[in-house]
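Dear Dr. H.,

I hope your travels went smoothly. While you were away I took the liberty of generating a structure for the chain from your last submission, since the lab meeting agenda had it listed for discussion. I wanted you to have the full record in hand beforehand rather than looking at slides cold. The sequence, exactly as received, is reproduced here:
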Amino acid sequence: MQWEVVIGLETHAQLNTVSKIFSGASTAYGAAPNTQASAVDLALPGVLPVMNKAALEKAVKFGLAVGAEISRRSVFARKNYFYPDLPKGYQISQLDLPIVVGGSLSVQVGDTEKTVRLTRAHLEEDAGKSLHEDFHGMTGIDLNRAGTPLLEIVTEPDMRSAQEAVAYAKALHSLVRWIGICDGNMQEGSFRCDANVSVRPKGVEKLGTRCEIKNLNSFKFLEKAIEYEVRRQIEILEDGGRIVQETRLYDSDRDETRSMRSKEEANDYRYFPDPDLLPMAVSGAYIEQVRATLPELPPAKRERFQREYALPGYDAGVLTASRELAAYFEDVAQTLGGEAKLAANWIMGDLSASLNKDGKEIAASPISSRQLAGLLKRIQDGTLSGKIAKEVFAAMWAGEGDADRIIETRGLKQVSDSGAIEKIVDEIIAANPAQTAEYRSGKDKLFGFFVGQAMKASKGQANPQQLNDILKKKLQA
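The corresponding predicted structure, in token form, is as follows:
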């Protein structure tokens, strides 16, 4: 039987506010356990939550960025359940009236663009954290994270493969960082996904029974967890079994999902409006005020890069993967004038390869946009050949200074003196009479041999175009 995979994602983006969503306690990461938990976070008797306006602003900003409807009235509810690291015995979240409704996100999957519809995005507080290490068989509770503001972003079941889910998660990760509402640090839990996975026979409209895989904090784990879960469900169905709706965890060491608990429904949480928090009223003027703070968004920037810099769609897509990368490219391109494609090639090629090798983000690049532009100018004016430019780039990456300094100290200036190149060519032809005779008798492939010998003799510094022209002329004489 042919099966169709159906995937929806719920993503928790930790909003980068200075204080928590309902208290003034710090949200800074890495403090000693329980040193950043206020009386509100600890749920001590008599305390009252107060809404953090910065968290609201960031939620509205996200909604505008994805073309969603911003609710003029939204309500906080109590979601009742027990966790050891949830002191109140309930989580303050939103159910019937979330702050953001609808919206969509366009993602690139290979050569295909796909639109993933969003159901909603709502504000809520995070729980604390259970620590199982170094407690001699006991569990420790750290409530520093309790009350940290989260934006939970829920999609429609629009994705049909693990690859599509990863493409969406990466696009969302890029967007929340682009608009400055979340640092996206997956290692610290600032951006984590839950995947709802089901399968159904191809051509059938009714959705299959879904299983939710919780707390996936890397794109690699997201892909592997979905792929495993799809295989597991298909095997059960083809063996005549049925899928049980449940919540599962992904074990990266064994590359498998395993059952955590039966899946709860909304009524299991006994939601009701939180009596301590008034409904939030958002005016049209406030929404427009937030809209004015949005930067140029990725789709608009991609279109502009293609229009203003004559870049192919692929290049524009790669260069707008992050706001910092786009700014870096634009700095280099504007310095070079009409050579935007040269800038794009070097940024997508040598620079990206070096960043990946060293595990660095573009903001931490040892070569600034000004320095890279300086190197590319020397290719433009003929001072460097492409090959020697790579040598200079490597030296710049190692911290040896700007391109001009390296060219000067290493004596790497390209030889464009036709007289000097003619002398090298004459010597190579004279030193290789047999190959010269063979070339002149029709063995054109030997031309590469002469080019290699001449470049070797010039230590790679001969102007390639001039060298080729002079070689052809001399060999055909």
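Two observations you may find useful: The mean pLDDT is 91. DSSP finds 15 helices and 17 strands in the chain.

With kind regards,
E. W.
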